[in-house]
Structure formats: C-alpha cells, structure tokens
# Entry
Amino acid sequence: MEVIKLEDISFAYPRGKIVLHGLNFSLKKGERVGIMGPNGTGKTTFLQIIVGLLKPQAGRVVIMGKERQTETDFYEVRSKIGFMFQDPDDQLFCPTVAEEIAFGPLNLGIPRQEVAKIVSRTLGLVGLAGFEDRVTYKLSGGEKRLVALASLLAMQPEVLLLDEPTGDLDPQNIKRLVSILSRLSLSYLIVSHDKQFLQQVTQKQFWFEDGRFLPLDTFHP
Amino acid sequence: MLQEPFANGNSFIHNLDPRIRILFAFFFAIIVATTWHLSALLWAFFFVVVVFVLTKLNMRDILKRILVVNTFIVLLVIILPFSYPGQVIYALGPLTLTKQGFFYALYIFLKSNLILTCVILLLSTTSIFSLAHALHHLHVPSKLVQLIFFTFRYIHVIYRQYQKLMRAVKLRCFTPKTNIYTYKTYAYLVASLLIKSYDRSERVYKAMVCRGFQGTFPVFRHFKMTTKDRLLSMAATIYLLFLAILAWK
Amino acid sequence: MHISDGILSVPVLVTGAILTAGGTALGLKRLRHETVPQTAILSSAFFVASLIHVPLGPSSVHLILNGLAGIILGWITFPALLIALFLQTILFQFGGLTTLGVNTFNMAFPGVIAYFICHPLLKIGKPHSITLAGILAAVIGISLAGLFVALELVFTGQGFIPVAKLVLVAHVPVIIIEAIITAVILNFLHKAKPEILGVDK
Ligand SMILES: Nc1ncnc2c1ncn2[C@@H]1O[C@H](COP(=O)(O)OP(=O)(O)OP(=O)(O)O)[C@@H](O)[C@H]1O
Ligand SMILES: [Mg+2]
# Structure
C-alpha cells in the first residue's frame, strides 16, 4: 500500500519562479528512500507539500489512501508523518528537552502520566537517556538533531521525513543516527547530500533535479 | 552577555518556589521604592544581607554587577544635592549644596541599590524559563508568558547569528568609526537579522504545526509547593507587613 | 534610557504602570495565537539589536530602534517591549521592577505613534518616502522617549530639572544616528521583505 502518493504536483512560491512542475512520487509502506540533489531544486519544498505546510497550485496529494486538501485533513497526516527540519533550531523551541519531547504527544491529547513514560522511553531510543532536564539551546548541534528526532518519534509516526539530518553531525554521531534508523520499524524518506549515509540507511536512492526523480545509480554526479 | 551567571546554584534560595520569589521581590520593590523612612531601609538592608548569605553567591560577582548598573544612579546622586532647593550647607562658587538635596540623593542611592540587589538575589537566581513558568501559574496572560518563552529562546539563536555576521564583516576589514558608512553597515546587519528572524519564525511555526500545534500550549510540568515553601511564604508575608508598616507610617 | 527603581515618585510610577497595562492589553488583543512565535522572534531580533553598540566619537551608544519596532509591530510593541525590559531587568538589572511600566511606556508609546505616522508613507512605496518614514520613526521614537524620561523626572521633583535637561541633550546625537540607521533598514526591508513591514509590493 502506498502511504504517500503525489500526482502531477506543480508549485511556485508567490512572487517566485516555478519550483515543481508535474511531479509524481510515491512511497510504499515499509519503504526507505533517499533523495539527493543540488541546492535550491526544491527538495525542502517537496517535503513540505507532503505534510501540507505548502499547498500545491495543481495536482493531488494522497496520504494513506485519502486525498488531502484542507488543514483538518493534514492535521491527521502530521500525527502520522514526522517531519524533521533542516535546522534543528527551527524545531526545538521549548526550554527543556523533556518539554520539547512532550509537546507533540500532549497536543495529541495523550494523558500526562503516559507522556512522561514516552519521554524517557524515546530519549533512551536515541541514546540520550537522562537528558530530560537539559536546556535545549545549550545542547551541541548533534544533540539538538537527536532531540529533534526524538520529539518526532514520541508521536509514534508511521513515516519519517528527514531533511538533511546529517547537517552538523560528526562521523561518530552519523554512525549513531544510522544505528537508530536501522532499529526503527517505519518507512522514511531522507534528503541528504551524503551519498554514503543514504546508501547505509535506505534501499532506494533518487537524484532530484529539474523537478524530476531519476534513479541515483543511472546518474553520476 | 546573555548568560544567567547566578541561576545555577544549589542553595536554600535557589531551591525556593519561584512563585514565592517573584511575589516577594515585587512587593519588596514597591515598599522600598516608596518609603522615606530610614528605619525601613535599614530593615530592608538587613533582609538583603540575610538573603545574600543564604544564596551562597560570590560577593565580588554581585558587587561587580551592582557597580556596572550604578552609572545612571551615581550621576543623579552627584547632581541632585546641588540642584535640589533647600537649606544651603555648603557653597562652592555658584554651586550650592543643600541638606535636603543631600538626603534626597542618599535615599535614592540606597533604595535603588537595595531593590537592585534584591532582584539579583531572588530573581536572577532562577532561570528565565522557570520565571516564565511561575508567571503562568500567577495568572499572567498566557500570550505574554508564551512571548517570554519564545523571545528568550530565540535571543540566543539570533545573537549567535549576529556574532557570525559581525565576524564575517570584520574579516573583510571593517572597522567601526563615527561615519555614515559605518552606520550603513550596521543598518544592513540589523536588517539582515530581522529578515532572517522573520524567515525563521515561519519555519518555527511550521515545525510546531507539524507536531500538532493548534494555538494553545500544553503545560507538561507543574510546580509543587513544599511545606518549607509554605512556611517560608508565611514568614515572608509577616516580614513584608512589618516592613510596610515601617515604610508608610 | 531606562530609569532604575527608587527614583520616581509614586504618582509617576502608577501612571506609567496603568498606561503600560492598557497598551499591553490592547497589544495582546491584537496578537493572534498563531502569530505569537513570529512576534516573539522579531522581538528577540530587536533585543539583540539593542545590544549592538555603534561608535559615536570616542564613546559608543547602543541602538534602541523603538520607532522601527513600532512600525513593524504596531500596538504589539507594548507587550514586546514589556518583555524585553523584563528580561533586561532580570539578566542585566537595566531598568527596574517598579519602573517596568514607566520604562515600557517611554519606549513603546512613541513606537506606536511612529506606526500611525509612518505607515501611510510606506504605502506610497517611493524610496524617498521610505527614507522620510525612517527618519520620522527615529525622530519620533527617540525624542519622545527622551522627553518622557525628562518629564517623569521633573514631575517627581523640581530638583531633577538639571538632570532632565541633561537627558534631553544626551538624546540628540542618538536621534541622528538612529535616523540614518532606521532609514537604511526600512529601504532594505522594503526591497527584500516587504511582508515584514505589512506592505505587500
Ligand atoms: N519562502 C520562499 N519564497 C520564495 N522562494 C522560495 C522560498 N523558499 C524557497 N524558495 C525558492 O525555491 C527553490 C527551492 O527551495 P528549497 O528550499 O525547496 O530547495 P532545496 O532543494 O531544499 O535546497 P537546499 O539543498 O539548499 O536545502 C529555491 O530556488 C528557493 O530559492
Ligand atoms: Mg532544503
């Protein structure tokens, strides 16, 4: 079954040039897909369309078998699809790590005692056990990444969209991320400039340019 | 600059419920700011000394901080004795020093510094985040509390951005001088900061929406008043009443 | 210039507190829940800008930009600056607790006035009208702020008159610097990001 299906998507920013034109894409349940591509081709734009942060001017967004158009449609989508932003400082806004991770589950209406358990479990999952009371803005770049990931995992999503997750990670932390991702049993879509990393964590890789996906192996950048 | 140097301690005061500290500092400041009785100021001073001992903070750090903030107050205190009308006790050419002016200046100096020290000892010893949290429980409007949270969180990010821009500008041999070119450069710097912040605010909001944000903030943790806190707030109330009577009699 | 605790008389303090409470209430009413992050992040930018020192002869002055903040935030300038001043009181002890109302009013009210005077000029959208808006915003923002401080001192006691005069004089060079800087910033923003100014091209 396809969890994400985009048909004939066209998108342009107001007062900007056309970024996507007639784009098609699909992701099946359990699939792990990597995307590479030059800067400014619209990878982030593409991910934002999937979770409804940007609305395409033409085309259909079908998530989990239902076409999604309104903000209410996407509210459900966002609880199932976790989106990790390119810059963790955009995502982490709470004072402490615990509150950061609790934010999503509390918004979903999960009771507080349950949330406390989720917080410590998720922190353990990303290898940051005991970080509950740390102040988010004082964490290192790598730790911020992992907290951002944990804040998504706490919502128990079925799909993850990761926008350049290795951005500021050192080789040690990349290894850590690889092992976390391989332990998860969900589908994901990763945008990255790191080919080796993508090959480690995904089954299929695409090259994205001029609004089109090409299999990475037929393309030699 | 944006550090909270006094916030990370482990003392009797540091562990006190922030709500009590806010209320106490607030009423203390009002009483001291409005009194004209030396006896009240002496009792306030006595209290500040006790709290200082309880915070286990370094005397030099506090004094340094107090000194920096005193520039405006000292300016006032130097001018006032000469500009205040009253009984002349000393004349230096056209300048006349009055008795009333002298005491007025002395009171201002004492009051300012007592309140200032109290703010350092009681409020700067908490993180801004727990202060904001406490304000929420003291029924400050929730939008205002959210503004405090967000503003303080992103001051750090934007300050780092400013430092990066400034470093880049300096690497290109920019030396600030008193001229239009310098001011224009600073204007560009600030404008870029504003634009970057605006763009960031859009991304932050989107990231929140992705995690189910619909306009209200769920509160994850709550304060708990301990018996110690309760006893202490009773003692504090009695002290404040006593101080108020002395101050406004 | 922020006034410390213990200087002003009770009537002045109370008036300042009441006016700021009113302005803040109006501002909060206009602030929608969805725009809280945006307003806060812009206030953080203004907070950081106020930490920037620009040279002035042998010394330096820090930026205030309350006129510009007013243009961008309108009535929301009140809550935004109230918070900035609160943070300054706790972090550096600039200003004071009992003077929070007075100090916020001194900065925010001129900003709101600048908002109403400068917006029509921005709507015209010509480079010189934008420059004029910037100069006006700075002149209104700083000179009124200085005037309010001076008046508050004089209302507190006749003995403060020389200090009040000094305060007014000290604001003159700041007005000139802020006028240049605000005009350049407005032109920059108008070109690159007119949405911030609430005028769409
Ligand atoms: N808010 C916006 N308004 C106007 N244009 C935009 C906006 N955001 C992005 N763009 C433009 O749209 C294009 C695609 O941007 P996008 O961020 O999706 O690229 P990207 O592939 O993620 O790039 P990178 O690898 O640098 O992250 C770029 O040319 C960019 O300049
Ligand atoms: Mg991108």
Notes: The interface with chain A takes residues 37, 201 of chain C (CB under 8 Å). The pocket of adenosine-5'-triphosphate (ligand 1) is lined by residues A 13, 16, 19, 39-45, 86 (CB under 6 Å). The first strand of chain C starts at residue 53 and ends at 56. The mean pLDDT of chain C is 94.
